[in-house]
Specification:
Layout lengths: L3 H6 L4 E4 L5 E4 L21 H17 L4 H7 L1 E8 L8 E6 L3 E6 L3 E6 L5 E6 L7 E7 L2 E6 L2 E6 L5 E6 L9 E3 L2 E4 L5 E6 L5 E6 L9 E3 L2 E5 L4 E6 L5 E6 L9 E2 L3 E5 L4 E6 L5 E6 L9 E3 L2 E6 L3 E6 L5 E5 L5 E6 L2 E5 L3 E6 L5 E6 L5 E4 L7 E4 L4 E7 L2
Antiparallel strand pairs: 1-2, 3-34, 4-5, 5-6, 6-7, 8-9, 9-10, 10-11, 12-13, 13-14, 14-15, 16-17, 17-18, 18-19, 20-21, 21-22, 22-23, 24-25, 25-26, 26-27, 28-29, 29-30, 30-31, 32-33, 33-34
């Protein structure tokens, strides 16, 4: 992480607090670039020398993130544009969320960038706090993005980039937040889950677990599911925080659970896949594996997909846990479906699989891709981002 002295010596985009407490974009020299490769230019104003430095940096970032068009074509996609989110010196991208109209990118130094989904141009890019602030994730609520750090919530207008609200959390947070009916819900190292009202500096409800909550909460219809570090499981009514059911597993989990709207599916470090009903917390089924599970499970059309270290990707019946197939040699998380084929990504390479048999159809190395995410699970556009903040949009090939 960049230290304060380093950041003072480095020309970059920062924010100042203007009248009315809103953040205003101030140009001190654009070192990270704000124009897209194939798309339109960003709207941020810079000096001639700053533009020159920014163009040089963008060119270096472009060269560092090469696109092999043949590999992407095998996966069923073609490049639409490349854009350049703001990433500070010695920082990297931590979160990316694509929507129909915008792409939200957050880097480790606290700069939040909003890119146009059609062109890749930077709509706005704002530094929310200090480079030492640890941010956990963001959610969108209409025209604003709500960003959570360990100690505060920030509400940012997606059109202007202005800071609409900033308020402290009642408890230090440790998870990515989820949004349910105007409530931001997160977990804490103290083992307390909290829900905060948007637009009001108050906590709507709190629920205590026995130990720290490291795993991100999961929405299950109108309920929220929680897993603690030691394996305590709780299901709460998302609106009121009232307890719907409890369960227990033998360890926590590294991966965020999945949901089908009524059941939560957990890939646990205790070498098991669990399915729990949110209403009552009853165990639906449990499948044991040979090693701890660390890949995020996915649910789609009655099937749970979970990666294992020894047998590859498993497809399990969501109702019974019965194994449908195992794709040996395929690791990672199912992130979407393209032309009826499963799309799997493991951080290094992507696969397409036959959804009925698990047979691997295509395999492509994706060097330099830190995050790969679609804007829709079935036949959506695909967004890839490099650690340095090069965002590439790929659209389905006809």
């Amino acid at each position: 992480m960049a230290q304060r002295g380093d950041r003072k010596r480095t020309a970059r985009m920062v924010l100042s607090v203007g009248l009315g407490g809103l953040l205003t974009l101030v140009s001190l020299g654009g070192t990270t670039g704000c124009t897209s490769d194939e798309g339109a230019s960003g709207s941020t104003t810079t000096t001639t020398s700053a533009r020159s430095r920014g163009a040089s940096t963008i060119e270096a970032r472009r060269r560092a993130f090469q696109v092999n068009h043949d590999d992407w074509a095998r996966l069923g996609y073609r490049l639409d544009w490349r854009g350049f989110a703001h990433v500070g010196p010695r920082q990297h991208v931590t979160h990316l969320t694509p929507y129909d109209d915008i792409v939200v990118v957050h880097e480790s130094g606290s700069v939040l960038s909003v890119l146009e989904a059609d062109t890749g141009a930077v709509r706005n890019a704002n530094e929310l706090a200090t480079p030492l602030t640890r941010f956990l994730g963001h959610v969108r609520d209409g025209s604003r993005v709500v960003v959570s750090s360990e100690s505060e919530l920030f509400a940012v207008d997606v059109t202007t980039g202005n800071l609409l609200d900033r308020k402290p959390l009642a408890k230090v947070a440790s998870t990515t937040p989820v949004l349910s009916e105007g409530l931001i819900i997160n977990g804490s190292p103290s083992g307390e889950a909290s829900a905060y009202l948007l637009g009001a500096p108050v906590r709507a409800w709190a629920f205590g677990m026995a130990d720290p909550i490291d795993t991100d909460p999961v929405l299950i219809g109108d309920a929220v599911g929680l897993v603690s570090r030691s394996g305590n499981v709780a299901f709460l009514d998302a609106a009121s925080g009232s307890l719907l059911g409890r369960a227990r597993i033998f360890a926590g989990c590294d991966a965020t659970p999945a949901s089908d709207g009524s059941t939560m599916f957990i890939a646990s470090l205790d070498q098991s896949v669990y399915a729990f009903h949110a209403r009552g917390g009853e165990l639906a089924w449990r499948i044991r594996t040979a090693r701890p599970l660390r890949q995020q499970p996915t649910h789609h059309q009655g099937v749970v997909y979970v990666g294992t270290e020894d047998r590859g990707l498993l497809a399990l019946d969501a109702a019974t846990g019965a194994e449908r197939w195992a794709a040996a040699g395929v690791t990672g998380t199912v992130i979407g479906v393209r032309a009826g084929r499963l799309l799997v990504f493991n951080g290094r390479e992507a696969f397409t699989l036959d959804a009925d048999t698990g047979d691997a159809i295509e395999r492509a190395a994706l060097p330099g891709v830190a995050i790969l995410r679609p804007d829709a699970f079935v036949d959506g556009n695909l967004y890839a981002v490099s650690p340095q903040g090069v965002v590439a949009k790929f659209v389905p090939r006809s």
